[in-house]
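REVIEWER CHECKLIST
Item 1: Sequence provided? yes
Item 2: Single chain? yes
Item 3: Sequence as submitted:
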Amino acid sequence: MKLSIVTTMYFSSSYLKDFYTRICAATQKITDDFEIIFVNDGSPDDALDIAISLYEKDKRVKIIDLSRNFGHHKAMMTGLSHAKGDLIFLIDCDLEEEPELLKGFYEKYVSSEVDVVFGVQQRRKGELFECISGDIFYTLFNFLSTYPVPKNIITARLMSMRYVKALVSYKEQESFMAGLWAITGFKQVPIVVNKHSKGNSTYDLRRKIAIFVNSITSFSNKPLIYIFYLACFILFLSSIAALHLIIKRVFFGVLLAGWPSTMVSIWMLGGLTIFCIGLVGIYLSKIYTETKQRPYTLIRNIYENVEQ
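Item 4: Structure as written out by the authors:
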């Protein structure tokens, strides 16, 4: 097997046939020895039926049907773990990332003698809010994480089998692919590409916030360290304020009344305490989840040609 194409399906029925045609055309310019792996991440539309119709016509198509929706990142890891190619091309099938990118990625891979060629957006797609929120996400993540990731990285990437084997050796329940790509190491080079916008995304604001929290707490313990320093800073300020009040009372007989300021301080410190406890709780919940050692996905069925 020369080349494996891996993609995931979730609300993807309107893109699959076009994606299949274009990725086949792009791949055949490199090799005729390839497989296309579709991972059905519990897609609620008829994406699976369309993929099965492609499988019935083309022996190179393989389908991994997950038992439910486990999430984009876990579905990608499942697809990569079933790839058999010497090279593996990971890409989303919604056509925001053009299948024709494969040619440029392959040329860069051959000329650079690397393990990974990954795509980075020339300009982040989307409206103003998406661009600003994306910049904030990467800035905060790289500030807090020990292993920074390139800004505006995309799914599309061409990888060697040895890199993929190392990547799928991670068995974490809370997967954040950009972080895993970074900490896996090996020699990786970026290539600047344009990513189109289809107008709507399955990643709404709630999911984006959840991914941000998960990514930070999965790849950095700095928030816990900063809590300690914050507590020291508050203790220092409160000690100075208390000493000031004692001096005013003992030496000058001044008793300062300040119910409003007292209430504000109580609410502020109470909220800060709850925030810190909640953050520690998130880390503890991750430990609880990881110790169960549950599989990160469950496969309902695999459609493949046994001769492949």
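Item 5: Key structural point noted by reviewer: The two ends are 8 Å apart (CA to CA).
Item 6: Recommendation: ____
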